[in-house]
TrEMBL record:
Biological source species: Occultella gossypii
TM helices/strands, residue ranges: 23-43, 63-83, 95-113, 119-138, 158-182, 188-207, 214-234, 240-261
Protein name as annotated: Tryptophan-rich sensory protein
Keyword Phosphoprotein: no
Keyword Transmembrane helix assigned: yes
Keywords associated with the record: Membrane, Transmembrane, Transmembrane helix
Record lineage: Bacteria, Bacillati, Actinomycetota, Actinomycetes, Micrococcales
Coiled coil: none
Amino acid sequence: MTPVVARTDPDDERPRRHWPRRLAVSAAFVVCVLGSMIGVGVFGGPPISQAADGLLAADGTHLAPGGGAFSIWSVIYVGLGLYTVWQWWDGDSRGVALPAIASMLLNATWILVVQAGWVFASVVVITALLAVLAVLFVRCRRRRPAGWIEAFVTDGVFGLYLGWVCVAICANIAAALAGAGFDGFGVPQWWAVAVLAVVAAVGVVLAHFGGGRLGVAAALTWGLAWIAVGRTAGEPSSTVVAVAAGTAAGLVALASVFARLRGTPHGGRTRTGQRPAVG
């Protein structure tokens, strides 16, 4: 008589496989939030604007955004919280959990490094963060979201995160160079204009290959516009840099609108092999 072998339903096993990922994402978010609290001085340390001799303050360099720009972090943290909650009810079909975890841990690491006064080390950390967010951007581009909620908490949230970091890394590098005595070859405003041209080019490329992702475009435009505000209403004052930043913001916004009107992103595929709609 053939023995009866009990079968295990794959659907019963799937939730068990999700638990390590869910716990890891949640732990990373907690670390990220604690890092942000440290960054604003909740636990007694200096806020980021005052750490590292004020090199990362709104008046630290020609590429520093005006103070109001940093309110975007509140939106990003709320978005990361929504992503953390959402992934308890859904799987990781787009393969973004690992880079999402890495991005949150790197954010907290960056804050601690800056508060320690290690500005050049912070450039290394934020460069790694940018690379991780770029990987996440590519993964989202390759697979269509299952619905509008997934699109919002992945494309929207991490797109916003990526766009802001594209601006923040420039300010971070400028701060590190200023701390080392670099004066922009004697013409700091024109050196800043050259960097802004590169940021604008990156924004146009991201719009082209990402199908005009709204999160990326919004954060890039926001950061660049606040650099223009900082150079107009604050120190160091520079009309040249303000105009360049405003122009860069406009170019990124126009490129993103054009990309969305054009249609779907290049090369992206759904899980069934069809081209995805723009998220």
